[in-house]
Amino acid sequence: MNVLIVEDEKSLAREIAEFLKSENFLCDIASTGTEASEKIAINLYDFVLLDLGLPDYNGIDLLKEAKKMNSEASFIIITARGAVEDKVKGLDLGADDYLAKPFALIELLSRINAVARRKFNMTSTDIVLGDFTMQVQARRIICKGEEVDLTKKEYDLLQYLVLNNGKVLTRHQLYEHIWGNILDDQYDSNFIDVHIKNLRKKLNLHAPSPWLETVRGVGYRISTGQTE
Amino acid sequence: MTIRHMLKIKFKLSLFNLLSKLVFTGAFLLLMPFIIERINLRQVDKDLVKKREQVLSLISDIGIEPFITSDSSFGSFNILKEEFISIERTSLEEDLNFIEESSRLIENEEIDYRVLNYSFKIDNQSYLLEVGRSLSSIKATGKNIRSVMLVFLVFIIIITFVTDTQYTRILLTPLERIKDKLKMISDPALFDRNPVKTTTSDFQKLDYALCEVMENLGALFQKEKEITVNISHELMTPISVLRSKLENLLLKEDLKPETSTKIEDSLKTLHRLQSLVNSLLMIARIESNQYLREDSFRIRELLKDIILELEPIAVDACIMLKHDLKDDILMKEANRSLIFSMFYNVANNALKNTSMGGNVLINSSYNHGIFRVSISDTGKGLTQIQKETLFSRFKTRDKNSGEGTGIGLAIAKTIADFHKIEITVSSELEKGTTFSFIFPENS
User: Which residues of B touch A185 (CB under 8 A)?
Assistant: First the structure.
């Protein structure tokens, strides 16, 4: 898939590009609004990551322009956290999603994947994890025909890990994904450990879950021997 | 600083007004008998002289004979013996004309009189005329005058006191208005700039000066908030870059475990920085009204969500998380996620401060028109100093309290202020701490 990264902070744009390339995306970088506007006019992109705070261009104007030129593309807005957050939510900007800086690269990937799944209607696949099956659409885990009783948070946590199959997720990345940014201050790595502990307990009542791995000193990972 | 026995200027003026009148009246009452006596005697003396003139003119009209014969004297008094007039022959050669107090025996009764003595000559014969008025009747008149004056005085005092007080009140109304304007504002930018109606130049000047001060202060506050918001925004970009770089590094396949751990540690530190900046940004944004307040929700349902969130943590730490949410209100024009953060921060803080086997109780009640949510723990309690600095940013950071930045309660306080919710804290060492949230009446 073709991604245009519109971000005036060049080193950030490079890091995003490096990450997405490792996930098999084709990346293009525009560090000014003018450059972005030109690239959008010439190329067709699947995704445009758009930083609204560009020095030379009104981000909203650029978004409107891009939607006209590149109507097939999906847009993920990147905002400096704060001032516009609520407004972005309230305004119908026509973007598919938005992310506040600083964000986890993994989170960006999940958002891109989620938008892609919505777009191409790929939400119905079931994912097999050892003796368990995750029914993404129904939001449940089945083991030998029986549903595993999970809380919403536990399910979200597991799904996030599963959707990032094979990657180590740090506790903070997990925390941020599940609890959002508003509780930032209360971040406590213990939270995630407690939930993972409970999650394992519940899974192990049905069958062993060796695929849910703890990576010492870093975080957690789903390892089914196969990548998505 | 509190000074006891504070009084309103209105009361002080009225009090002074009353006291000065009382002092004046007291002095007057002390002097009054003396003054009245003087006035009274002068009046009596005038009367006596007038009577003398009447008698003399009568004598010059009809002669002395009808009054007095060669060997008798004339005397006349009224029934109550209050006045008498007497004429008698006298052998004294000198001219007499004086007033004295002396007693007379009338019908075997000795009575004190004020007596005018006057001598005159007709046909070489000297006569002594005495006109008298009894002292008791004089005193009675004095008493009458005194009581009339007393009533009058009291009347005057009441009238002047009431009018003075009323006038003071009217005069000070603009001052009250200015005071009200000051009382109602929490932010200098919200100061009511409409001038207070007054004809007193002092108040007008005070009002203008206050308006100006508030305007400057408001601008300064606004600037400070903007600076905080801007700095926080500026800090986010380098944090973003660093974070992405570290995360990319962590994804490299060929890392040694100790390198991964080091990177994760750096990420943790970076997250703390991010949290700090976020928290500051959040406070600055709340204080500069950048959050919308348009959610309606039930407090009980929100508290249940919080309990659901914290339950696993409490269970893990062997703490009983109890709740008694018997009353509920519908919160209007509020920001749900902010209110959630506020309760969450305080409840999570309570859990952190409670040791194994302790309790945390979340409670809601509606009493006398006031809705209150309280979160109490059986933790180690707070010292007086801790209590005082509880809501200040960064001051309460306890090195052992986990990975928080110690700003959670400051955020809670800011959110509460934003929603006009009052937070009170009561705490007893080794017993526990209770946070109470008192909701505004209209919510």
Answer: 275, 278-279, 345, 404-405, 407-408, 411
- Structure tokens given for A34: 């003018």
Same domain, B210 and B313: no
Residue B421 near residue B402, CB atoms below 8 Å = no
The residue type found at B235 is: L
pLDDT of residue A90: 43
| CB spacing of A16 vs B244 below 8 angstroms | yes
Residues of A in contact with B316 (CB under 8 A): 190, 194, 197
Distance from CA of B373 to the nearest CA of A (A): 20
Higher-confidence residue: B362 or A44? B362
Using CA atoms, how far apart are residues A137 and A153, in angstroms rounded to an integer? 16
- In 3D space, the residue among A56, A53, A78 whose CA is nearest the CA of residue A3 turns out to be A78
Query: Min CA distance, A10 vs chain B (Å)?
Result: 9
B305 vs A contacts (CB less than 8 Å): none
Whether residue B393 sits in one domain with residue B308 = yes
Query: Do both B236 and B346 map to the same domain?
Result: no
DSSP, collapsed to helix, strand or coil, labels residue B318 as coil
Q: Over 80: is that where the pLDDT of B68 sits?
A: no
User: Measured between CB atoms, which of A12, A181, A217 is closest to B244?
Assistant: A12
Chain A nearest-CA residue for B309: A153
The pTM for the full model equals: 0.66
Domains identified in chain A and CATH numbers: 2-119 (3.40.50.2300), 126-222 (1.10.10.10)
| B262, B150: one domain | no
User: Would the CA dihedral through B307, B310, B311, B317 be positive or negative?
Assistant: negative
- In which domain, by residue range, is B231 found? 201-287
From the list B241, B338, B348, the residue facing A186 with the nearest CB is B348
Give the three-state DSSP class for B375. strand
Q: How many domains does chain B have?
A: 3
On whether both B169 and B123 belong to a single domain, the answer is: yes
| B contacts of A184 (beta carbons < 8 Å) | 274-275, 278-279
Q: What is the DSSP letter of A2?
A: E
The owner of tokens 């206050």 is B210
Instruction: Give Cα B201 to chain centroid, integer Å.
Output: 24
CA distance B153 to B159: 10
Per-residue pLDDT tens over the stretch B306-324: 998 888 889 988 999 999 9
| Same domain (yes/no): B5, B56 | yes
> How many angstroms separate the CA of residue A220 from the nearest CA in chain B?
12
